[in-house]
Amino acid sequence: MQQIFNFIIRNSNRLLFLLLLGISLALSVQSHSYHRSKIISSANFLTGGVYEKINHVNEYLNLRTENDELVLENARLKSLLFNKQDTSKLPLADSVKGVKPADIIVSKVIHNSYNTHENFITLNSGSNDGVKPDMGVINSLGIIGVVDNTSPRYATVVSILNMKSQINAKLKKTNHFGSLTWDGKSTGFVQLEDVPRLASVRKGDTIVTGGQSVIFPEGINIGTVENIYKKENSSFYVIKVKLFNDMTNLGHVYIIKSKDREELINLENKEKNE
């Protein structure tokens, strides 16, 4: 305390000058509108800059929460899309092959291999979340693969970059079907085999899921035609497909749960056994 008093005594003239300067500035600001507006404007500039910086920090800290909310919203919209009824035409008799009612389970890739011939993906959702083998996995750009095995909290997925993977796919514009496989070479391309030569196909045409299985709904994006090859001594094409997805960079995904899956499988097995 004594040191404070000593400081005040030693600097009494300076402190008195600052006090009088402050009083004079305050009186000048109060009595002149121009000065007052300049002071307020400067204060707003300083506080606004501080608030903006704080807001940037808050936005950065909330990115994960906002991203999770966007993923859930996207999943909800996709669920509505898959369940949408087309009232413009009557349902066909063979439409039971399609996956009509579909639920969406939001998950995240926690491991992704793409440098072997049999690549697998690990998700942070499992049987506790309703995930079962043979469920289709997609993201906003297209298909990812098919669930292979599950544990209570995790699931492994056979990637489309797996030489044992076979997925029903078709040309979007003509509905000609084929089998989607991978030759083990490039992570950006897969092959659509056994497409009839009668099909009209050009580079840039879109390839989508065919819907002739209970794994994927019909019309999910896969990629575009890059090259077309004719199989020797065969009446079929082999089409090189450029994937919409970057399979080396995967984040959130959607697992498709077909409510009709068991019913359709039981019905088809019954027909086979008769």
TrEMBL record:
Using the record's annotation, list all stretches that form the Rod shape-determining protein MreC beta-barrel core domain. Answer: 109-257
Biological process (GO) annotations held by this record are: regulation of cell shape
Q: Does the keyword Kinase apply?
A: no
Q: What Pfam families does this protein map onto?
A: MreC
On the tree of life, the source organism's domain of life is Bacteria
Record flagged with keyword Metal-binding: no
Q: Which UniProt keywords apply?
A: Cell shape
GO cellular component terms attached to this protein's record: plasma membrane
InterPro entries reported in the protein's UniProt record: Cell/Rod_1, Cell/Rod_MreC_2, MreC, MreC_beta-barrel_core
Q: Which family does it belong to?
A: Belongs to the MreC family.
**Annotated protein name in UniProt:** Cell shape-determining protein MreC
Organism (species):
Flavobacterium collinsii
Source taxonomy? Bacteria, Pseudomonadati, Bacteroidota, Flavobacteriia, Flavobacteriales
